[in-house]
């Protein structure tokens, strides 16, 4: 696992954008994995800025989102498909239908999950997956206890996650759906490159468990330890609980010039 600590959240977003842009410049038809929540918002803003400067195009790219609430109507401002549309898709040049998310309004949720898995495979898999991390170590909506080989499926949300996400629902926990559809840890692990972004003191313990703790379903994000190309981008606050912070800084400083993430 490649752990990179940079001085600010802005630099976390910039490094992640470098990786996305490098991929699309070399492979314009690449498949992106898009996360929601607060962690990737600065990345999306940076990608929009670079697109407006003519530095990157999404015209031939495709994208799959990680997860979706169950029960929110299409177009609800906090549905994750709507968040991605609002925060990225509407501001760049993705083609019609190029961005897809799990269908949280489906009558048959299990079938919707199977079809989503099939769609990702039919696209050739995700080339670069953007990830955030929850305070309990979840990635996507894979809560503690999730199988490390799980696939896209319906999942009940932990109370901690609903409490954390209440800020998007006017602070009203009771309005946060209790069920979701989420890519599984096994699904996420098939992506070619995992890029996890974490900023802020509230993420420090989860980051430490992910990077330096044991591989365990108790910290779903620890599955990144098994991936051949996983990058963890941190600001100093998110890195503050790491025991081997000096090693990660040294490893990054000694990386060959011009070599990307």
Automatic annotation (TrEMBL):
GO terms for molecular function: glucosamine-6-phosphate deaminase activity. It comes from the Bacteria. Residues 9-225 form the Glucosamine/galactosamine-6-phosphate isomerase domain. The keyword Hydrolase applies. Pathway: Amino-sugar metabolism; N-acetylneuraminate degradation; D-fructose 6-phosphate from N-acetylneuraminate: step 5/5. Its EC number is 3.5.99.6. InterPro entries: Glc/Gal-6P_isomerase, Glucosamine6P_isomerase, Glucosamine6P_isomerase_CS, NagB/RpiA_transferase-like. The keyword Thylakoid does not apply. The active site is at 67 (proton acceptor), 136 (for ring-opening step), 138 (proton acceptor), 143 (for ring-opening step). Keywords: Carbohydrate metabolism, Hydrolase. It catalyses: alpha-D-glucosamine 6-phosphate + H2O = beta-D-fructose 6-phosphate + NH4(+). Gene3D superfamilies: 3.40.50.1360. Catalyzes the reversible isomerization-deamination of glucosamine 6-phosphate (GlcN6P) to form fructose 6-phosphate (Fru6P) and ammonium ion. Belongs to the glucosamine/galactosamine-6-phosphate isomerase family. NagB subfamily. This is Glucosamine-6-phosphate deaminase. It comes from Kineococcus halophytocola.
């Amino acid at each position: 696992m490649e752990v990179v600590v940079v001085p600010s959240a802005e630099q976390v977003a910039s490094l992640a954008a470098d990786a996305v842009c490098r991929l699309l410049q070399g492979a314009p038809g690449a498949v992106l994995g898009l996360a929601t929540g607060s962690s990737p918002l600065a990345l999306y803003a940076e990608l929009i800025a670079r697109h407006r400067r003519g530095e990157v195009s999404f015209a031939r790219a495709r994208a799959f989102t990680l997860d979706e609430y169950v029960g929110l109507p299409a177009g609800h401002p906090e549905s994750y498909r709507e968040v991605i549309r609002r925060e990225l898709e509407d501001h760049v040049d993705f083609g019609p239908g190029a961005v897809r998310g799990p269908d949280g309004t489906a009558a048959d949720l299990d079938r919707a999950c199977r079809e989503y898995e099939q769609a990702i495979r039919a696209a050739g898999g995700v080339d670069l997956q953007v990830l955030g991390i929850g305070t309990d170590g979840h990635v996507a909506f894979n809560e503690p206890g999730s199988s490390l080989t799980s696939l896209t499926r319906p999942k009940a949300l932990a109370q901690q996650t609903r409490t954390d996400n209440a800020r998007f629902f006017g602070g009203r926990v009771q309005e946060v759906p209790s069920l979701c559809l989420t890519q599984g840890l096994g699904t996420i692990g098939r992506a070619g490159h995992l890029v996890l972004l974490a900023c802020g003191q509230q993420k420090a313990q989860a980051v430490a468990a992910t990077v330096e703790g044991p591989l365990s379903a108790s910290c779903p994000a620890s599955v990144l330890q098994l991936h051949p190309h996983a990058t963890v981008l941190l600001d100093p606050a998110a890195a503050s609980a790491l025991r081997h912070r000096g090693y990660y800084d040294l490893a990054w400083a000694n990386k060959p010039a011009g070599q990307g993430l």
